[in-house]
Every structure is written in C-alpha cells, then in structure tokens.
C-alpha cells in the first residue's frame, strides 16, 4: 500500500494569471514545494480509516505477524507444545466420530436431489433425530476442545414487527413462539469460521457452501447431513435455479414447515474483525419471511478469534494455542417484515442490519468484500 501511495503523480500546479500592471511591491521568490514523504504511521492511519472492519487490534497485529512481547512468546510456546497437539487430536477424533454416525444414519439411503443440490437434511424419523442431536452435542464438544469453555447467551424481547419497532412485548416461552410462527432463516454477523460451529451447536442449520465442500473427505458427508446449499456458478443447465432461487425455497420451506431443516445465512458475505457490520445482501430477505437475528462477539485479551486479515492456517494455530476463548451471543426477537419491507428486500435487509447494529453495539460500515480484497492485496505486497 505504501508503494501505491508513493507512486501517485503529484497534482499539477495551477497556472497563475498574468497581471497587466507592474506590481507595487517586488514579489518574494517562490520556494519549490518540498516532496511530501508518507510515513508508515500515516499509512496505518489510512488503513484504519479506509479498511477499519478488517484491521486487527490484538497483540499479534496485522496478519498475525506483529512483534510479540516476551510474555506472549512464552505463552505461545507453551501453547504450541502442550495445547496444540491435544486440541488437534481431540478435534479430529470428534470429527471422525461424527462422520461415522452420519455414515451409519445415511446407509442405504439416496440423498435428496433437487436443482443440482443433494442433501440428507430432509431425512425423517430416527435417522434425522440422531444426526441432529449428536451434531449439536459434538459441535459443542469441539468448541470446548478449542478453548470455548463458556458461551454467554442473551435473549432479548419477544417478537419484532417491521420498520425497526424493537419494543419488547411480554416474555413468551420458546416453544410457544415456535407454534405461532417459525423464522424463515437465521441471520448472523460473520466474524470467524467458529461462527459455524456455534450455530451447529445451537440449532444445527443448513449453510451456503462452495460446491467443492461436498467432495471433501469427512466434511463432505457432514455438509450433506446439514443440508448445505452448494454454490456452483459454473453450472449452465437449463433447470438450474441458481443459489438465490434455492435459498428462497429453503427459507419458505423452513418458515412454513416445522419439520424442514433450518437455514443459516451470513448476509454480509464475508468476515470482519467483529466490531463492524457490513452492508447486507438481500438473499435472506427475498422470501418475505420473518428472520431470527443473532449477534456474535468474541471478547479477547491476547489473540482475536476474528478471521479478517490473517491466513487460515496461522489463525487456526494461534487460536488453538490460546488457553481460553470466549463467545458472547445475543439472540434478538423474530423480526416480522412490514408490507413495505416485503415489497422492498433492500429496505428489509437494511432495517434488520440497523437493528442488529443498535442491539449489538456494532458500527455500520459501507464497504464490503471488494474492499477487503484490496486491503489483503496491499498487505501481501
């Protein structure tokens, strides 16, 4: 980024108008304008201002490569020797165990295939019950192994009707809310890949994932049991509805049928450092169904679990080397769109976004994935 700023051409000097009369005073000689050098400090200020949602503020610094104090080096060394091997083995053991459960429960069954999607999430009976309950418990077990020993959850209010009417009504039991009306989708801010583990442990919903995930060892079958909606942009078949069409159908199905798998969407489309909320995409709001907003925060003292401007491998290693990790969850009331919001998905998305920002003390930002890629490219120069 420093090179890019230095290479900018200087602004040409504006021509001075010629005077017809002789000046009364002799003008002082104009000294040449000195070339302004941009310090590393000013560059950091520009980065923080332009790319604030993706800037790290923990001890490990930008890209996790900052200069560490001696105390942090000692703690990191202890984590590498003692914590990392135990947590890797523990996580892989739980993953393999759940894979075996999914393999047994889907034995002799053909996956549900529709619009170039395939899943086992629509399987009923004891098979679905075992997949769902064991998936929730084992996801929580993985979080525990990774150092998330306690999860602080806060539930606010009852239900919200559209246009940011966030006044709480009389408290009601969760099963009563389910009987009245189910949300079509769960919408959440996106901070880390840990978000997925938490939502699996809480409600075991479906996610939107790349098509290649379905072919991964172990994880591929688990994603089909979750009922993931796979992104396959290269498909050109005539009956291909596109991800938006499949998501809309799944949202309506989840809203109308209590036995249908829930669907979880991250409308920001990318991760942040956890302090900001990016503009929402409208995919979760096109179906005109109510949504359940969930806000995730990751308090930290040393290493931030946010996956923003750091490589995946480095992030996993540093996360597993931290002795204790924390999650704070705020569950907002089910948001029911007004008639105006149903006719305008952008308005619906923006109102839910502002509600989440207000309740979660998050800062609204106007930048998105494109700016994040620019920031990453500048960091890697």
Automatic annotation (TrEMBL):
Pathway: Lipid metabolism
Matches recorded under SMART domains: PlsC
Pfam families: Acyltransferase (PF01553)
CDD domains, alphabetized: LPLAT_LPCAT1-like
Location of region: Disordered: 1-33
Keywords on record: Acyltransferase, Lipid biosynthesis, Lipid metabolism, Membrane, Phospholipid biosynthesis, Phospholipid metabolism, Transferase, Transmembrane, Transmembrane helix
Superkingdom field: Eukaryota
UniProt-listed GO biological process terms: phospholipid biosynthetic process
Regions crossing the membrane: 74-101
Molecular functions (GO terms): lysophosphatidylethanolamine acyltransferase activity; O-acyltransferase activity
Similarity comment text for this entry: Belongs to the 1-acyl-sn-glycerol-3-phosphate acyltransferase family.
Main location: membrane
Localisation per UniProt entry: Membrane
Taxonomic source organism: Sesamum indicum (Oriental sesame)
Domain Phospholipid/glycerol acyltransferase, chain residue ranges per copy: 184-299
Gene Ontology CC terms, in alphabetical order: endoplasmic reticulum; membrane
Name by which UniProt lists this protein: Lysophospholipid acyltransferase LPEAT1 isoform X4
């Amino acid at each position: 980024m420093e090179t890019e700023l230095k290479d900018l051409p200087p602004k040409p000097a504006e021509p001075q108008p010629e005077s017809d009369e002789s000046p009364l005073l002799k003008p002082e000689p104009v000294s040449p304008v000195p070339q302004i050098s941009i310090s590393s400090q000013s560059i950091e200020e520009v980065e923080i201002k332009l790319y604030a949602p993706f800037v790290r503020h923990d001890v490990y610094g930008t890209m996790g490569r900052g200069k560490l104090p001696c105390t942090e080096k000692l703690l990191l060394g202890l984590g590498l020797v003692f914590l990392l091997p135990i947590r890797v083995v523990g996580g892989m053991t739980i993953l393999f165990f759940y894979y075996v459960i999914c393999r047994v429960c889907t034995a002799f069954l053909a996956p549900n295939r529709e619009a170039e999607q395939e899943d086992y999430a629509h399987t009923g009976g004891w098979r679905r019950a075992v997949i769902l309950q064991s998936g929730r418990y084992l996801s929580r077990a993985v979080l525990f192994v990774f150092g998330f020993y306690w999860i602080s959850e806060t539930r606010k209010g009852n239900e919200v009707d559209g246009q940011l009417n966030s006044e709480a009504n009389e408290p009601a039991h969760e099963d009563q809310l389910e009987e009245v009306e189910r949300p079509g989708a769960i919408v959440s801010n996106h901070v880390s890949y840990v978000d997925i583990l938490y939502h699996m442990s809480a409600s075991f919903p479906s996610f939107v994932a790349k098509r290649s995930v379905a072919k991964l060892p172990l994880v591929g079958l688990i994603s089909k049991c979750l009922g993931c909606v796979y992104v396959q942009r290269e498909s050109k078949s005539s009956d291909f509805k596109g991800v938006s069409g499949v998501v809309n159908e799944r949202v309506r199905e989840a809203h109308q049928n209590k036995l249908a798998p829930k669907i979880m969407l991250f409308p920001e489309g990318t991760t942040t450092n956890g302090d900001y909320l990016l503009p929402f995409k409208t995919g979760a709001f096109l179906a005109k169904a109510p949504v359940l907003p969930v806000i995730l925060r990751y308090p930290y003292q040393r290493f931030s679990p946010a996956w923003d401007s750091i490589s995946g491998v480095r992030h996993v290693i540093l996360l597993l080397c931290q002795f204790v990790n924390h999650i704070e969850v705020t569950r907002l009331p089910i948001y029911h769109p007004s008639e105006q919001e149903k006719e305008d998905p952008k308005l619906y998305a923006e109102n839910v976004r502002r509600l989440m920002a207000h309740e979660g003390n998050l800062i609204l930002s106007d930048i998105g994935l494109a700016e994040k890629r620019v920031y990453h490219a500048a960091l890697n120069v």
